[in-house]
Amino acid sequence: MKKMLLILFYVCIGYLILIISLFIFQRSFLYFPDKEKVDSVYFLNTGLEEISLKTKDGLVLKSWIKKPTSQDEHTILIFHGNGGHVGHRVNKFKPFIDAGYGLFFLEYRGYADNPGKPSEKGLLYDALAAIEFLSKNKIKSEKIILYGESLGCGIAVKLSSEAEFAATVLEAPYTSIADVAQKHYWYLPAKWLIFDQYNIIDIINKIRSPLLILHGEKDNVIDISFGKKVFAAAKEPKKSLFIPNANHNNLFEFDVVKKILDFLEKKKIY
């Protein structure tokens, strides 16, 4: 009996240590920045130019923009996912430049060689700095398309729920980061430990602009069920593209660019 109690005691201690470790180091599990300087080779033949943004809390961040060819064109503001840096996504989004759109690659604090550490509050400050930059360059919200990729969906939805933009596109969205964490760490009270919630489900119904949701049905990072819940909670006008054989990282291998462009044109955002 004593041996069983002793084993139970050590199991409980181990479980407690696991919970404490997850709580303390949680941002290391959420953000995976590549801290290398973004080489200019990534932007060859794209027209993207490096700019500097100053955030509300005083950081100066490098980002990249290709301005639209005319004032009638729209600019797509990209909020990328939690890994790598913007350079890794240039080829993915270059077709939008080729289609005539302006493109703004916001690079977050703590990513590439930008100063600071990522957090939900910090990334929102970064996003607001990007909006301010566009406004100062006479690109108003009605000419801005917000594009959230994975983690970036939370930022896109937050902005779009508070102001009206031309359109919002969400790639692999989630109800909240807490919900995703709970699904992955089902054996821990993960949902109750998360600092950076990025709670989409509670505010998605406040979006007034046309909404497109893309999600791979074989996504093993952010389960398709989360994307479907977000879509169900959103108001019209909205459209979903749930791709049967796509996973978290290969959606653009399924002719998605054409479908996004078709959506933007059919919604007559112009």
Summarize this structure briefly.
The chain has helices spanning 2-24, 26-30, 90-98, 120-136, 152-160, 177-184, 224-233, 256-266; strands spanning 32-33, 49-54, 60-66, 75-79, 83-84, 102-105, 144-149, 167-171, 211-216, 238-243. With 270 residues, it is α/β, with parallel strands linked by helices.
Observed structural traits:
Rossmann fold, alpha/beta, single chain, 270 residues
Please provide a written account of the structure.
It is a single chain. The chain is of the alpha/beta class. The protein has a single domain, classed as Rossmann fold. The chain has helices spanning 2-24, 26-30, 90-98, 120-136, 152-160, 177-184, 224-233, 256-266, and strands at 32-33, 49-54, 60-66, 75-79, 83-84, 102-105, 144-149, 167-171, 211-216, 238-243. The strands form two sheets. The protein has an eight-stranded mixed beta sheet, sandwiched between helices. It is globular and about 80 Å long.
Shape: globular
- Can you tell me the residue ranges where pLDDT is under 50 for at least 5 consecutive residues? none
Task: List the helices and strands in order.
Answer: HHEEEEEHEHEHEHEHEH
CATH class: Alpha Beta
CATH domain fold name? Rossmann fold
Number of domains: 1
Number of helices: 8
| Spatial strand arrangement across the major sheet | 2-3-6-4-7-8-9-10
Oligomer: single chain
SSE topology:
Elements: H1 2-24, H2 26-30, E1 32-33, E2 49-54, E3 60-66, E4 75-79, E5 83-84, H3 90-98, E6 102-105, H4 120-136, E7 144-149, H5 152-160, E8 167-171, H6 177-184, E9 211-216, H7 224-233, E10 238-243, H8 256-266
Parallel strand pairs: 1-5, 4-6, 4-7, 7-8, 8-9, 9-10
Antiparallel strand pairs: 2-3, 3-6
